[in-house]
Amino acid sequence: MSESSSSSLERMLGVLDLFDDTHRARSAEDIATLLEVSLPTSYRYVRLLLQAGLLQRVEDSQYALGPRIILLDHYIRGADPVLQTGLPVLRELVAATGFDCVVTGLFGTQVLDTHREMGGAPATLAYGRGRPRPLFLGAAPKVLLASFAPAALKKVFESQHAEAVRAGLPADWSSFRRSFAAIRKAGHYVSRGELEPQLVAVAAPIPKADGGAWAAISLVFASSRLAIVDLDKLVRLVTDAATRIGGRLG
């Protein structure tokens, strides 16, 4: 593929990145402006993506993400090694506690929940599979970041410094590093109302042999239950489940 063909393909696929919770539909004019391409080029991208099922036409000459993405998500679930290996363990954890269990991955600096096993009284969550979560709020992102090597963590600190400070984390690198080193040493993190004020989450990383993490698993429950649950036992159950899944993943 020539360099011009490669860059054209990259721009065309960049159309898919223009959709989010705020902009669920776009016009060809929007796409042309945002990608800095001509209107005929924008229409060509739209036509090709429509043919591929990656876009669909909605009202008033607007375009939204297409049904093929649903199919691709089905294949992603089937190929996810954490879900393939870990689902029986997650279900045991839910049966033992009655609480929801959520699997969360870190893709670059984007935090995404990839699966949720419902407990007896499912929590109302603002976030779910595929909706990006804040990088520094909640238990799962913190245990995932704690698995980073210092050099990789410093890159996150430098590139996302303002967001980290807004989330209440230390503004200087030394203190920031120490806070995540403490989480790594503990092997878990408990968040109380960090992401959603009515919820508590107990998270642990699914460990990789190289010291990183495949993903994080969290038990999530209403903060009103905190006074009557055995938090230490929940921590043991979550960390044990994460270790078992990590061991099976090799």
Total strands? 8
CATH architecture field of the largest domain: 2-Layer Sandwich
- What is the beta-strand fraction? 15-25%
- Order of the strands making up the biggest sheet: 5-4-8-7-6
Largest sheet: 5 strands, antiparallel
Oligomer: single chain
- What is the CATH class designation of the largest domain? Alpha Beta
Report the radius of gyration as a whole number of Å.
21 Å
Q: From the 3D structure, determine the CATH topology of the largest domain.
A: Beta-Lactamase
Average of the residue pLDDT scores? 92
Low-confidence stretches: none
Pfam family, one: IclR_C
Protein name: Transcriptional regulator
InterPro entries: GAF-like_dom_sf, HTH_MetabolicPath_Reg, Tscrpt_reg_IclR_C, Tscrpt_reg_IclR_N, WH-like_DNA-bd_sf, WH_DNA-bd_sf
Domain HTH iclR-type: 6-67
Describe what this molecule looks like in 3D.
The protein has helices at residues 3-14, 28-35, 39-51, 68-79, 81-97, 139-146, 150-159, 161-166, 173-186, 231-249; strands at 26-27, 55-58, 62-65, 100-107, 110-117, 189-192, 199-207, 213-222. It is of the alpha+beta class. The protein has 2 domains: 3-70, Arc Repressor Mutant, subunit A; 80-249, GAF domain (Beta-Lactamase), CATH 3.30.450.40. The strands form 2 sheets. The protein has a 5-stranded antiparallel sheet with strand order 5-4-8-7-6, with helices on both faces. Strands 1-3-2 form a 3-stranded antiparallel sheet. β4 and β5 (110-117) form a beta hairpin. α5 (81-97) runs antiparallel to α10 (231-249). The mean pLDDT is 92.
